[in-house]
Amino acid sequence: MTTPELFFLALGLSADAFAVGVGLGLGSSEGGLKKSIIAGAWFGIFQAAMPLIGFFAATRVAGAVAGYSRWIAFALLLFLGGRMLYGAFKKESDGPEGRDRASEVNFAARHMFILAVATSIDALAAGVTLAFTDANIVAAVILIGVVTFFVSATGVRIGAVFGEKFKNGATIAGGIILILIGVRVVAVG
């Protein structure tokens, strides 16, 4: 694979991370540089690691996961999106004492891990594909990780800009975005 082909592969793989990043930014009370970097790092590392795992495990691991990968991603995204929606509606009924903790997007390791896995499962299959091409796996992994870092960090920032303006409605939108991404994964997959 040529470098431009790898770049477009990286962009394609980072699309879900971008959309989830926007959802994270929408659900966050502030989407500063630190949160953008945290999301970018989680998504970038996982998007880089999964093709590497797929490359080396080739059909053995990918074949076992491939049939279920879209359902795993769907369940994880549905859970997190549902949690955001629950928190947003709970806050509305609780009154104006501020953001409910369940609706506030949490950038803690356990939440970011779930999202990073959910958005990078398709990269596992890409790694299997790379094993059957003349691609330089080191270059591919680095490019995929770097592109995903920047794309998802940008998504968080874009979401935060809208989230600051629209507050609770943005949290609802963020939850809906995560759920719709999960539905799309199942429908397209």
Describe the protein in words.
Helix content is 85%, strand content 0%. With 189 residues, the chain is an all-alpha fold.
**How far is the N terminus from the C terminus?**
24 Å
Given the C-alpha coordinates, what overall shape results? globular
Low-confidence stretches: 96-103
User: What's the tally of helices?
Assistant: 4
Report the sheet-strand fraction: under 5%
Secondary-structure-derived class? mainly alpha
Mean pLDDT: 77
Main attributes of the structure:
4 helices; 189 residues; globular; 85% helix; single chain; mainly alpha
How are the SSEs placed, and which strands pair?
Layout: H1 3-26, H2 33-94, H3 109-131, H4 137-188
Compose a concise summary of this entry.
Helices cover 85% and strands 0% of the residues.
